Amino acid sequence: VAKHGSRSSSSNCGSADLLESLGCDLNAIGPDNVAELLRRHRFCFLFSSTFHPSMRYLAQTRRELGFPTPFNVLGPLINPVQPDRAVVGVHSQPLGPVMAEALRSLGRRNYAVVCGDENLDEISIAGSTQVWHIDDSGHIDHYTIHPDNFGVPTHPLSAAAGSTLEDNQATLQRLLNNTLEPSDVAIRDFVLVNTGFLLFVSGMARTMKQGAEIARLTLESGKVKDLFDSFARSTREFNTATG
After folding, report:
1. Residue 65 CA from chain centroid, whole number
2. How far apart are alpha carbons 106 and 148 in whole angstroms?
3. Distance of alpha carbon 33 from alpha carbon 44, whole angstroms
């Protein structure tokens, strides 16, 4: 997984904020480190301000606006790794076919663009999600998926909503440590449907349901925590080496 992301701009807590709060030194990851991190951990975070320095000048304005801008759409198109397969979320259904066509024009294949029916830029845990799936030949197939496809019950979005950085940090630690509280079940299932779909698109699962089951077993085994902890250590080692 090569995640291209940034700090929060239109939400309370961005992916970079959360990873940094748990000991990842994202500023230490440069272009020369990406291949090694992917080889060691099968995961790398590509901080947009490092890989696209001009973006840092827009960060404050995006935070002040507090709503999605064209740069939310641009991010997935400029992932430096250009993965072979990917799932890309958009925050508005009319953007779905536009994003899919843009990705197809750039030569991307085996990519899926998703938008939850609540205009959610992820797969919804509350109901249906629209998918625009670019196959090997470049054909775009539009279909609808539902938590049922993953063998997971529906939950209100409010039950899986992000909160403050501190709350999100505590929730992620419970997920990684497999010490879930009853209030975490919706968030866990949210993780399962989104990870399960990525495994399905990547070809690592034959069905969406199998993808969700692989994700659940991997979480419960502790492997995800081990990989996360080793990734965080590697980023700190890079910082020490360059410092």
Report:
1. 22
2. 33
3. 9
